[in-house]
Amino acid sequence: MVRWQLEGADGQGQLFDDLDRHVGRGEFRGMTFLHVRARRVVNTLPRSGRLPFRHTINAYRGCSHACSYCLAADTPVLRADGTSVPIRSVRAGDELAGTDGRRVVVSTVLDRWVVDQPAFRVTLGDGTVLVASHHHRFLTGRGWQAIGDLTPADVLVTVDGPDPATAAFRAENGVVRVESLGVELPMHDLTTSTGDFVAGGAVSHNCFARPTHDYLGLDVDSGFEREIVVKVNAVERVRAELDPKRWSGEPIAMGTNTDPYQRCEGKYHLTRGIVEVLAAARNPFSILTKSTLLLRDADLLAEAAERTDVSLMFSVGTLDHDVWRATEPGTPPPEKRLEAIARLRERGLRCGVLIAPVLPGLSDGAEQLQAVVRAAREAGASSIAGGQVVYLTPMVRRVFLDRLAQSHPHLVGRYEAMYTGANAPRTEQARVRAILDEAIGSSPPPVALRRRRPRSTAPPSDVEQLSMRV
User: Fold this and answer.
1) Which residue, among 261, 348, 266, has the nearest Cα to 299 in the 3D structure?
2) In the CATH scheme, what is the homologous superfamily, with its name and number, of domain 71-205?
């Protein structure tokens, strides 16, 4: 039973008026979207709080980033004109065939990357052979399934017909077998405007805040990734709550709970609508994300920055691909986030790096942290913040340790000894902070923006204050 009647932490009253469950279709099969009409969207924190921001917006609860990916270089990808090309030939800006959950539509490539991963081969009933990483997901008759979870009982959803405009979905290509090739191969993946694309004829998947799910009575493990609360009236509520008769124009932070550019943003476009409202109101705002989907709104963000104070930040906790694969496999690789920073900086936007969370035994080495600082500077990051050692509340600790036991079992005992509470020992926090202080202090400052910034009398944004703290 979902606890929709609970009051907000600030005593602002009942959270939502109603609940409407929508079972995901097409690329979102296997997920459930809980449509709600929020009574308030701008959340105000107590003045006594320790966080460097007071007002936040989170249009979603739960995070549909939970995916991993990558396809072999020769995998054919269906283009919007009905022809196919190897995925290695696809570039940002290309138009592919994607889906909107009901039909095949044009899907624009926003980003692409290559990473070495263990290769697995899937053989289908019609003789099609697909080579991909173990965690890559395809749409099946029972929803999105990773290759490692496929069985001979599964059938992949395919696109029937060479013309995307008239193509139909069919779940008819059965899985014959899945086998490891025993080698690592360069694997390619894309970020598209629809969140999916068609690879080898099959519909293919592309590419933090669990306690809020428990607060609502939802599962904090897989449910956090499959049951997404969507505040469908978020844009209209923000417009109403920013009425100048009641709102003083204080800065608003996005990405403080769940990622505003998680995959389902491609379906609902709530973050884009909120940015449009904030820009029209000339209200300062900041965005923290791990997703290169933010590049989709680069033009809009640049226009907003001409009217008000806009601060962007990518979370990059490590450059180590083994750590990245184990801890956040559903996000673009760290180097792609850094490339996105460079592209946004070229547009004159202020965009920084948040080095967090730092994971003891995984990403807390001096050389590892120094490497992130150097890479951030090279990308032109306007600020570097972070150093927060991972924070584990009891329910998050359970999920984290369960997954750590699968990827790095030798570290479980260390974490159990360290985390008698939610925070790492102060000595560990101080050690990490000292490494970053030295690394940031010894690296050259970023190149200043060339274009004129709009005047603003607003206090420093949350990302600027985080940078000051580091």
Assistant:
1) 348
2) Hedgehog/Intein (Hint) domain (2.170.16.10)
